[in-house]
Specification:
Blueprint: H1 3-25, E1 37-48, E2 53-65, E3 75-85, E4 90-102, E5 105-118, E6 122-135, E7 137-138, E8 144-153, E9 158-169
Antiparallel strand pairs: 1-2, 1-9, 2-3, 3-4, 4-5, 5-6, 6-8, 7-8, 8-9
Length: 170
């Protein structure tokens, strides 16, 4: 993994753990009402390891939290899209299954397709699996924000992302 990404991931992990500890130290924790839908947007940095390129990353998702009192309340399902801006554009579309093992932690797996426009081959489409982890902090009742890291793999390529996630409960 690229040294810059490792350093950024370590910093975000330490920050998330430290802020989580502060939240637990508060006498009165916030009452986080589970919302049914979330529109999420992530902005960040992408490292296309196989192509030795770097660029900006934009990731969108729309997730519906499963309802009920059982284990299903810890899961969401939905759709996602991703765009990586480099000299050669990369796009992704995926179906997402997210787990919420802790109140503010979201782990997701998203199978889908990635399209890349390579100068020598034109547009290519491949199956991709996208993994993501986000830790969020409620800023208000209208949105939350926090660090996000991601990894995506096709049969021939892989990329890493790190950025900021903004979630809007609907």
């Amino acid at each position: 993994m690229h040294k810059k990404i490792k350093t950024i991931i370590k910093i975000l992990a330490v920050a998330a753990i430290g802020l989580n500890g502060l939240a637990f130290a508060e006498e009165e924790q916030h009452a986080h009402e589970m919302h049914k839908w979330e529109l999420g947007v992530s902005f960040g940095y992408a490292n296309l390891k196989t192509e030795d390129e770097e660029g900006a990353n934009i990731h969108l998702h729309l997730l519906k939290r499963l309802e009920g009192d059982g284990i299903q309340k810890y899961f969401s399902v939905g759709f996602g899209a991703e765009m990586i801006v480099t000299d050669e554009k990369h796009y992704g579309a995926m179906v997402t299954l997210a787990a919420h093992p802790m109140e503010d932690l979201v782990l997701s797996v998203s199978p889908g397709f990635e399209w890349a426009n390579h100068e020598d081959h034109g547009w290519e489409r491949e199956y991709a699996t996208h993994l993501e982890a986000a830790y969020t902090f409620d800023v208000s009742e209208k949105y939350h924000i926090g660090p996000v890291i991601g990894y995506s793999k096709t049969s021939e390529a892989e990329h890493y992302t790190v950025g900021i996630h903004i979630g809007i409960p609907l």
